[in-house]
Amino acid sequence: MDQLKLKAGNMATESSPLTTHVLDTASGLPAQGLCLRLSRLEAPCQQWMELRTSYTNLDGRCPGLLTPSQIKPGTYKLFFDTESYWKERGQESFYPYVEVVFTITKETQKFHVPLLLSPWSYTTYRGS
Q1: Is 122 annotated as a binding residue?
Q2: C-alpha 21: how far from chain center
Q3: Confidence (pTM)
């Protein structure tokens, strides 16, 4: 595993209001080194603005996607590069990427977006 990828997943603070955790349900292990990008839908043109690119850490987590000062109400998107993740493992897969779009209405809340991933399916939900 590329050490730069693993470091990138650990760089953020634990006080982040937005986190994610990816589990590889095919192996029963955390999905480490999976690339993801966070974007926000910006008005008035309704264009996605990329806020951060990161990688999941050894535990499959990306704890600090936004700092408390960066979060604001709006529509956000987490893009998970699942194709590259599975190719690195020599595994064929059906979904080249997963996009999870969600709305933040109160910047004072915490948001956790887990992803359960296999080569042939995925599930997500609002975690705590």
Answers
A1: no
A2: 7
A3: 0.86
* Residue 112 counted as an annotated binding residue: no
Distance, CA of 124 to CA of 116 (rounded, Å): 6
| Contact criterion met (CB below 8 Å) for 114 and 18 | no
Q: Are strands 111-118 and 121-124 parallel, antiparallel or unpaired?
A: antiparallel
Containing structural domain, residue 90: 18-124
Q: Is the pLDDT score of 79 beyond 80?
A: yes
- Tell whether 109 is covered by a domain: yes
What is the pLDDT of the chain when averaged over all its residues?
89
Instruction: Give first-to-last CA distance, the chain, whole Å.
Output: 29
Q: Give, for 10, the enclosing helix (H) or strand (E).
A: helix 3-10
In a domain, 8, yes or no: no
Query: What CATH code is carried by the domain that includes residue 113?
Result: 2.60.40.180
Q: What is the mean pLDDT of residues 11-40?
A: 89
